[in-house]
Amino acid sequence: MSSAHSPSQNHLLAALPAAEFDRLAGHLELVPMPLGAVLYEPGEQLQHAYFPTTAIVSLHYVLESGASAEIAGVGNEGVVGISLFMGGDTTPSSAVVQTAGHAYRLERRLLKHEFDRAGPVLQLLLRYTQALITQMTQTAVCNRHHSVEQQLCRWLLMTLDRVPSGQLVMTQELVARMLGVRREGITEAAGRLQHAGLISYRRGHIAVLERSGLETRACECYAVVRTEIGRLLSDVKPRQRLSAVA
Amino acid sequence: MSSAHSPSQNHLLAALPAAEFDRLAGHLELVPMPLGAVLYEPGEQLQHAYFPTTAIVSLHYVLESGASAEIAGVGNEGVVGISLFMGGDTTPSSAVVQTAGHAYRLERRLLKHEFDRAGPVLQLLLRYTQALITQMTQTAVCNRHHSVEQQLCRWLLMTLDRVPSGQLVMTQELVARMLGVRREGITEAAGRLQHAGLISYRRGHIAVLERSGLETRACECYAVVRTEIGRLLSDVKPRQRLSAVA
DNA sequence: CCGCATGTGTGTCCCAGCGCACAGACGCCG
DNA sequence: CGGCGTCTGTGCGCTGGGACACACATGCGG
Description:
The structure is a homodimer. With about 250 residues, chain A is α+β, with helices and mostly antiparallel strands. Helix content of chain A is about 45%, strand content about 20%. Chain A has 10 helices and 10 strands. The first copy, chain A, is globular. The first copy, chain A, starts with 10 loop residues before the first helix and ends in a 12-residue tail after the last helix. At the A-B interface, β5, α3, α4, α5 and α10 of A face β5, α3, α4, α5 and α10 of B. The structure holds a DNA duplex (30 and 30 nucleotides).
């Protein structure tokens, strides 16, 4: 595993015109993202926006009761901290590192400055935000109407898109917390998937064996989000490595 | 009921600096919004953005199975058609008039133009968008964890904020479709609320009698969204008539 | 003012998912 | 290599909500 880091590992940054990219590059700071790290908590003033390269961040909402659910996930296709350029500065949700890795971060001030420029950077960020909105709406509908197994498949697929190896380091307990369901529900669903030969797992490690099987069992939500990301971020710079967007 | 229409009945428009407001005013077109009218369908290119004054619009998502759910609602505090300035042009969801009334609409081209100006108009729109995002995330979590009754209360309260009279024209069937639940579930929940003296209804009409009671029974989601709208849109222009924001 | 479409109230059955409780099983660390 | 913490499997009973099936109201249009 080569550890050569580059901002262009993040699709948003990679999609920027060279001039814009160069302008920002000097200000990007590579930071490690350990599992469980909290990038921000509800109402907290963000100091940086994070462009993940290998890390995956989960936008999470915790209710007063302690129950929680993932709102959306952000990997190397996006950025964490949209409220910085949206103007609200904070959000009622939090952001937690779901898969350890790295990200490039940009200071709050610099990002806010992008708003005034109203250039390609802002345009790209807003498009991404719309894709994120799609993800959120889909999550809302999915939560309402789809089974735990369908959602698990969707979640695995989305994570898979951000982890090329297909080897996820993830306990069932954590997955349950992501989806906002009972741990036992995941055990059962995952058991069925393993039995069907689609995945295999052992104590905190999940390996996807047959991606297509997951796609069959997943709800439409996965495809919708995937397609929408492709649509919104493709014509900015046609060739990204979103791979198999269909 | 005075039928004097004015763009300033929409809080976003009203919050604009005078110069900006005047610039747009000439291009705003007052349109009636009949119940059930579809402003856009999934994937459809929007031709206008709508700033409701008395109408309420429901952002809606319909699954392949036919099941559906409201993603968020837009009243005189907001605007329908954010994808126009976000850059995506279309969304996978649709927008349907949930309560008849009026709105001012603005042509696509003009709104897109606002993006390039990167002025107060865009800033306000983006802030509103963030509030909308909050509403969507809250919907997602609410769908996961809260009971039908709690959600009904939340929905009633949010609608109430947009209908000063407290007299809603709305069948249980429709409410059910909004929340993405069974009609019978609404019948039961509404029955309990009526029994408790909080609301009264008859064949397609719902009257709220005791707002505070609904607030008690609603989940936290209502307050979160309400507070966030207040926070995000208040310091643009302090005095809006969002009334009792708490 | 009658009738029928359209809302609303019930009741019954069923099941996914929750809460809880505990039994194994793995694997890391001393 | 042994022990313990963590993760996973399983078995309850319970319940909210879904699907379906009617019976009854209501009020609009003819």
